[in-house]
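Intended use. Records such as the 2-oxoglutarate-dependent ethylene/succinate-forming enzyme entry shown here are meant for training and evaluating sequence-to-structure methods. They are not intended to support clinical decisions.
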Amino acid sequence: MSQSTLQAVDYLAPNAKELFVASLKETGFGVLKNHPVEQASVQSIYTNWQTWFNQADAEKEASLYNKGSQDGFFPARISETAKGFTQKDIKEYFHYYPWGQCPAELRAEVHDYYTKTSAFAAELLSWIEELSPADVATHYSEPLSSMIQDSEQILLRILHYPPLDGDEEAGAIRAAAHEDINLITILPAANEPGLQVQAKDGSWLDVPSDFGNLIINIGDMLQEASAGYFPSTSHRVINPQGADMSKSRISLPLFLHPRPDVVLSDKHTAKSYLTERLTELGVI
Ligand SMILES: O=C(O)CCC(=O)C(=O)O
Ligand SMILES: [Fe+2]
C-alpha cells in the first residue's frame, strides 16, 4: 500500500468518486475530507458520551446489552475477543439501534447522527456500485444502496477506550486486529490516534486521523457480495504510550448492515453471515 493510497479525498472534487472507490479497491479503506457529516455533531456526541462512560459501572450496567438483540452497553468484562485472539480488547461500548436501549438524554442526538450518516452511506454505496466493473456488479443481488434501505440492523457503536493504568493483561490492546462484518463502516476520526490498517505486505500503517476526516472501510459482507473484488482489510487500535496512556479515546463507527433477508452470495444471506460471525466472537 503506497502512502498516497490513504490520503484524504476531497468529497467536493470533481473526481472524488473515482479516487475514493480506487482507494477502497486498493486498500479496503478510503478517507474523505469536506464531507457532509457535521463535525460539531460528532464532537458533541464524543463529549456527552464521555460523561456517560465516566459513570460508575453499576449505573452503566442498568443499560446492559440484551443478548439476543445486541442493543445496549457492553462492559469491558464482556467486551469482544477478536477472531483468533484469546485476550479481550481494552474497551467498553454501547450499541445504538433506533428500536433499542439508549439513555433518554442522549437519544435525540445519536438518532439524528444515525439517520443522516446512514443516508450519506447510501450515497457512498451507490458510488461503489457505479464504479464496480460489470463482472463484479453482476454478483449484486440488488443495488448496494437498497440493501440497507429500511434495514433495522444498521448499528451505531459508541466506543470508549479507557485510560490505561499499566495493569493490563500482557499483549492486550485497545482493539486487536479484526475485519468488520458489515457492508461498509463509516468512522469519523477519533479524538485520539491509534487506528492502523494492515497493508498487503503485512505491515501496519497509521490511518490519517486528522479530526474532521471521515474514514470508510469495506466489511466482510461487501467482500462476500463482490466476490472478493473489494477487500475487507484488517485493522486495529494500538495502545497509547507515555503521557497519552492517561487519556480516554472515543470513537463512533456506524456499521452498515443490510436487511437480514438480503442475499450476499450463493452461500450466504446477511442473516446467516452475521450469525456465523457473532458466534465466532463469542457475543451470542
Ligand atoms: O476505534 C476505532 O477507531 C476503530 C474501531 C473498530 O474498528 C471497530 O469497532 O470495529
Ligand atoms: Fe473495525
